[in-house]
Write a structure and sequence with these properties.
96 residues
Amino acid sequence: MPDIHICYKAGPKCYAVFWSYGEICVFCGCCQAATKERGKARLHYWQELLKDSMNFKYDDPPEIEEIQRRNVASDMRMEKRRIRYYKRYEEVPDGR
């Protein structure tokens, strides 16, 4: 049976569960007060998760692989929605 790792929050306001591994704060800025900087930090967080999902390697038995493919596709849809939401915190390029 494969090992399973469950991530917990590093603190009560922790947003970046996958970065903190439930043990330490990595000071990503995702949990700070509602500011533009928090929005940018969360955008970066969701972009990194999407990149990880896109590079996911399937090495499961065939009967589990189909379930895993559906799970990853669902994760990617949610990550893309979050990225669209947090894109508003990106800086507008000069000249616009």
